[in-house]
Write a structure and sequence with these properties.
Helices cover 17% and strands 33% of the residues. It has 616 residues and is an alpha+beta fold. Among the domains are: 102 residues, TolB, C-terminal domain (Neuraminidase), CATH 2.120.10; 262 residues, Rossmann fold. β23 and β24 form a beta hairpin. The mean pLDDT is 95.
Amino acid sequence: MAEVSTGKTERLTFDTATEGSPLWSADGKWIYFTADYERGENAEVPFDGSTQVWRIALAGGEPTPVTRIKDGIDQFQLSSDTRTLYYMVSSDEYENDEWKSLRKEHDGVEYGHGKFSKKELNKLDLASWRAEKVYGEPRHIASFDVSNDEKSIALVTVKTDEAIHGEGQSRVDLLNVETGAIVTLNDDLWRKQAKSPYGWLNAVSWSDDGKKVAFMCTWDGYPSELYVAHLGNDTVITKLNRPGEFEVSEGELKWQGNSLVFAAEDHARNRLMKIENITRSGQGALKTLTPGDVVVGSYSFNRDGKTLAVEWDTPQSPGDIYVTSGTGFKKITNINPQMAEWKLPQMEIFTWVAPDGTPVEGVLELPPDYVKGSGPLPTYLSLHGGPTDSDKYRFEYWIYGRVFWASMGWACFCPNYRGSTGFGDKFMTDLIGHENDIEVSDILSGVDALVAAGIADSSKLAVGGWSNGGFLTNAIITHTTRFKAASTGAGVMDMLTQWGTEDTPGHVVNFMEGQPWENQKEYLESSPSWNMDKITTPTLIHVGEGDQRVPAAHARMLHRALREYLNVPTELVVYPKQGHGLTKYTFREAKMAWDIAWIKKYVLGDPGPMPAQPVQ
């Protein structure tokens, strides 16, 4: 806890559990939060490692459990007067068809469909401690928001919890708590009238007066959009304009009267913005609440909306809390004081022009003591995922390349290629129908520009990335032999395989502009798999054993081709019980150690001693 006036901080909890989602009580005497406390292998709820809601007094002391739900809770929300706790719980459900009884009888096997996890909404009276179900049928709840008067609840619901149903089948339901009646908002704006029907709804939010509901729809490949439902006898839904074509970031939407506050990407920065005076007939001005070189994370207003607290990253800091009451921001935390003694990488925005004349930019990190003009550097080309994402202009130390290559005397180049967010709608949508083509040209021309600037050593280049960055690594090493080493993680090799096995196939359908039987040519041309014979780059391959987003079959395909048939140096590292990202410390450590050893061997000729590296 940090005191705003003095900056004085106090640690309230000391357990090794994961704690999060803190909320103040209305009287300011309690802090409610989630935690997965565990007290031994046979401990009972709430100390069995399940996620529960807890609270701790402002004065400190031991946290006390608020919920004791078997298997734990998901999202929670407090009523405005903090007398009621709303929370979601999960249960196993079966599709109600002719095979339901057989699936239940033989429950120990995996089914392609028909069994799923469904979230329902309950509420707990914090005076009587009585709980009751608010919504349990017939659909799965993805997210919810309770109106201030608690008479209505806005729900984003889907058929099942499977990601394939979220993209294209999610909807906004408005539940009347007193009658149980549900009104589903008309979805023409984000389905029939959108460029793709495969968007997913999120961030539903009631206005303070209960007359409007805001939410957003997010697509792979297309800009995210904000919508507002103006409720009444003649409910009207409007799509908000995005002046400057900013990209709305996934996260909370917050109302301030008739104004809507949200985070949005803008040229490698993530800013907090506000659209004022939203009515049925239009909207007012767009204001930027956090100017400068900042990348905003979470944020919150006090109860009267006059004080804003926001967490942001800068090129010099990985995150602190800043507060303003309208006259400039005051830093109130120093979460990483050890950084005052660090030599930080030099960081800049590097710009160039793509072969088709399009301006492109990226984040460039250089060693702390490097002097431009003193000679070229070995360079690591770090490719971000998504591709509907971007590398941000901030201090970002993680296992995919940022910061640690500069600390070892390398340049680290992070291009925001075509398809990246925050550079305008056309820049993003140019990639649709042109994967493994236009963005590869952007990236390689950026490397050319970096070599021409005397920064990158053309004889000492490495490339790597994760997710879409892995796909692009796979693509690039089929286009050129200029890279001496590659590290590809969770990367697609074949678009048909990806369409058929990933959990969000709408991603592929959008970029391929159709189903496999509708656009075979695009599926073929976008797939690095059909050009594997052109690979000569020594390639290190990483993948999570249980990755549903980019299944391990892609990694095994590449490994087989390189090792068994093409005689290209390769190693395949599979991380047990890991999904699309590596969450275990020792696995993160292993990935970094392998990357450093592999790339130093094939780029520099001698791996040398590997420095011990702390990991995020």
